[in-house]
Amino acid sequence: MAIMSEAKSESALRDYLALERTVMSNERTLLAYIRTGLALCVTGFTGGYLFTEVKTLAIFVTVVGILVVALGIIRFLHVKKRLLLRSEIAS
Are the C-beta atoms of 69 and 37 separated by less than 8 Å? Predict the structure, then answer.
């Protein structure tokens, strides 16, 4: 009986740690989206400031950067919601 209890405990710990790794991975992915979006925004601002003849391209790159950050936030919240639902079902 003790072996069964120990196996369940080990399995529960493994599941918990897997969920924690997935949550941290989701957070890292959000940070990557933010980093990429900010890099695009900075590139757009700098390009628009230094090269006045490419203002349209600079605006486009800046808007794409904002959209990348927004997409990252939406994706993060969606995955977080799914993880919460999955962890509640498993409990």
Answer: yes
